[in-house]
Write a structure and sequence with these properties.
The chain is about 50% helix and about 15% strand. It has helices at about 5, 20-30, 40-50, 65-75, 90-100, 115-140, 155-165, 185-195, 215-220, 235-240, 255-265, 295-300, 305-310, 325-340, 350-360, 365-380, 395, 405-410, 415-435, 440-445, 450-460; strands spanning about 10-15, 35-40, 55-60, 80-85, 105-110, 175, 200-205, 245-250, 270, 280, 285-290, 315, 350, 385. α5 links the parallel β4 (about 80-85) and β5 (about 105-110). It is elongated and about 100 Å long.
């Protein structure tokens, strides 16, 4: 049996020219469903054009436009809308024809109360599952990222423990951390490990959504609620029913909308824009921000009561620079995945290049590392490895470390080797900036062209594009 919360979301259209039949069906359904009744096929088609329905009960025999023709026109407007035909016992042939035209099923008069409800619940459950399948398929077509979190650092081991514990509850979660640390990935992992995993995970970027569309996008709207609202529309919270909704950049919510979100968290209900009807939902809210909400609470730009409602279970993600040992692990992981995704065969990452990656501060965190690896895979020829010369200047000469110094100290090669490494990279950068034009490069370095040529030979600097 479906839960009451699901039932309360369903809107049923009853189409029959007999007022007794309409009244009878409305009496059976009205306690658990939102019921709309019309007496003609033309009115039914108009209702489907203007409002979202979960199911239609449609009489086969009606004056004017009969049930079969009405079915065809309804399907032309909403091909995925399920229709149960109402048929007399002597109309078996027409009922069978309606199935061929796309009806889900048919019932015969006089109908039994329990048969109606059981049939209806079966249809709605199937419809809900189909919506989820379509959602996950659309996400896959968009290239939705895997929810594997790759790490072996002790800092992330703490996060894994929190994820395992919080996924078993339905408490609200507030994920904090610098931009690019993987807040959405953690949110998806919490959802996928929970009992809600088979239900939708709906992600919303609060910073990217226009202020005037926020309420209608999250809560939906009724026909005529505003200019352009030609039909009723359900919002993200309704779609996420029994699943999870991820509110990224929660700090960007306007104060007036913070109050609306607070009500949803407290009461688990809301109203669509332009409606007074209460819609109840069962949704787990996971929020994220890279801003300290406590500071916003102090200056009055973020509601304290909302903050406490969101921050039931706090998860603070460490930046990549604090995840010891994770850069090489992540670099290899991204390289393997990108090779497969882009049908490439970049051989690997040289030890010197890996040392450079590991010594960089990564202000953009995991996202910056992944984006860099994608660029390297695009630019590096197949069967070759990513080397120092492929890396951008800011990686090679970061404030945190000069490439090679760390490895030179570790192997006891000392200052001479470190100086040679620095010189090689410095000249390489100048050559790249001047598109390997030796005359311009020598002028920039303030040395003779012959000196540059000798340096290039001794340091094994070659332009692979000319080979």
């Amino acid at each position: 049996m479906m839960t009451q919360a699901v039932v309360e979301q369903a809107t049923i259209l009853v189409v029959d020219d007999d007022p007794a039949i309409r009244d009878s069906l409305e009496e059976i359904l009205e306690d658990s469903y939102d019921v709309v009744c019309v007496d003609s096929g033309a009115d039914a088609v108009e209702q489907v054009r203007s409002q979202v329905f979960d199911l239609v009960f449609l009489d086969i025999v009606m004056p004017g436009m009969d049930g079969i023709e009405t079915l065809k026109r309804i399907k032309a407007v909403e091909k995925d809308l399920d229709v149960i035909m109402i048929s007399g016992i002597d109309r078996a042939q027409q009922a069978t024809e309606s199935i061929r035209q796309g009806a889900y099923d048919y019932i015969t008069k006089p109908f039994d109360h329990e048969v109606i409800l059981n049939r209806l619940e079966k249809v709605l459950e199937t419809r809900s599952l189909n919506r989820e399948v379509h959602y996950h398929r659309a996400q896959a077509e968009k290239g939705e990222k895997s929810t594997n979190i790759v790490s072996r650092s002790s800092a992330m081991a703490i996060i894994f423990d929190i994820i395992d514990k919080v996924s078993q509850a339905s408490s609200s979660v507030l994920i904090t951390g610098e931009s690019g640390t993987g807040k959405e990935l953690v949110a998806r992992t919490i959802h996928n490990k929970s009992s809600r995993a088979s239900r939708p995970f709906v992600a919303i970027n609060c910073a990217a959504m226009p202020r005037e569309l926020m309420e209608s996008e999250l809560f939906g709207y009724e026909k005529g609620a505003f200019t352009g609202a030609h039909k009723q529309s359900r919002g993200k919270f309704e779609f996420a029913h029994q699943g999870s909704i991820f509110l990224d950049e929660i700090s960007c919510l306007e104060p007036e909308f913070q109050a609306k979100l607070l009500r949803v968290l407290q009461e688990r209900e809301f109203t669509r824009v332009g409606s007074n009807r209460i819609v109840k939902v069962d949704v787990r809210v996971i929020a994220a921000t890279n801003i300290h909400l406590t500071d916003m609470v102090k200056d009055g730009s973020f509601r304290e009561d909302l903050y406490f409602r969101l921050n039931v279970v706090p998860v603070e993600l460490p930046p990549l620079r604090q995840r010891t040992g994770d850069v090489p692990l992540l670099a290899k992981f991204f390289l393997e995945r990108l090779n497969q995704k882009m049908n490439r065969n970049v051989a690997g990452i040289t030890p010197s290049a890996m040392s450079a990656l590991d010594g960089y501060n990564w202000p953009g965190n995991v996202r910056e590392l992944e984006n860099l690896l994608e660029r390297m895979v695009v630019l590096t020829p197949d069967d070759q490895s990513i080397d120092l010369k492929n890396l951008p200047f800011e990686i090679l000469f970061s404030e945190k470390s000069i490439v090679g110094a760390k490895s030179s100290l570790a192997t006891g090669r000392g200052l001479i080797q470190a100086r040679t490494t620095f010189e090689r990279l410095y000249i390489l950068k100048a050559l790249q900036d001047n598109h390997w034009n030796q005359t311009r490069t020598a002028r920039q370095l303030d040395i003779h062209r012959n000196t540059l040529i000798q340096k290039m030979k001794s340091l094994d600097l070659k332009n692979d594009d000319t080979q």
